[in-house]
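I would like you to help me understand the sequence and structure tokens below and explain how sequence relates to structure.
___
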Amino acid sequence: MILVHVVLVKNTKTVMADTHSAQYYIGLMSGTSLDGVDGVIVDGDSQKIISQTYLPYSKQLKDGLRQLTQSGQTSLKNLAEIDIQVAEVFADAVLLLLSNAKLSSDQIVAIGSHGQTIYHQGGRYSMQIAHGALIAEKTNITTVADFRMQDVAAGGQGAPLTPAYHQHMLNGKLGVVVNLGGIANLTQIFSNKVVGFDTGPANTLLDNWIKRCKSLDYDREGLWAKSGLIDQGLLEKMLLDAYFQKNIPKSTGPEYFNLSWLDRYLVGNEASEDVQRTLLELTALSISKYIEKGADVYLCGGGVHNAFLVERLHYLNPHSHIMDTGELGIHVDYVEAAAFAFFAQRTLAGKTSSLPAVTGAKHTRILGAIYAN
């Protein structure tokens, strides 16, 4: 059975056969923080990042995505327009990468594009926009996209996918990788197995609360949270939420953990900085419960720049060695982008990337739809 879904076929055999004539792959990622696109060029032989860039979304696009993901309401026309806009930003990120690295499109084997998640219901459906056909057309580079739905069709959560890359990244080492994105996901790498899942919110609630209260996009270094006090009653109520009680495999997103979710737990007389402090503690605790004493822990994602969040993770795990993925030679902001370059390479080689033990799928699958160019 051929598991790769070839959506647009142009010289497909040539694309497959020529994977050894060039050595570079591009990975593109935009996470649940909805802030923009991370892009990398990776050497396919060494897996080292040779160029990286970040291209932010415009305020208008960011606001549109936030409305789309958190309200769940839109028109087909609006959805199509946002899809096109996001794809254009992804394509622009590729062109910027090529310019910075002084490479041409014909030196790139393929792009691996995660796209922008706008809806995720683990085990049922997962939608990422920034359609690969438009990226392939604008960049003249074969693009692999829509990585999640093959796993979902096989009965899996469709997320997180990055534990397979985390295992490759650690290269035989044992430890824990924690991605502090909008949603936090955690990978435990043991001697004979890999376990990975979404622990709950990381930046998404922190960013949205400060946006509501102070009209800021994020809490720089966690200083506003640090100025508040933990509301123990609020914290205990949130920790009793059904998601935190679920067994693995499990995955989630901002369509669940959003301000509407938070509002259910608020009385209305809380100091805004105390809510921020409590949300940060919620993130730290929901991650730390899965970190074993003495573990080597590698942090990545935008939340690494929240100094107070990192401080709390150190405090709650005093017997573990907490560092960031820079120790492994991969910048904290580009781990996930590099993962999708890695997945694209595996897809074109006909290799699986899914881990059924992580997602709960019935079988391993070759992930991604190929838009050949």
User: Anything to note?
Assistant: The longest strand covers residues 108-121. DSSP finds 15 helices and 13 strands in the chain. The radius of gyration is 20 Å. The domain at 5-159+334-371 is CATH 3.30.420.40 (Nucleotidyltransferase; domain 5).
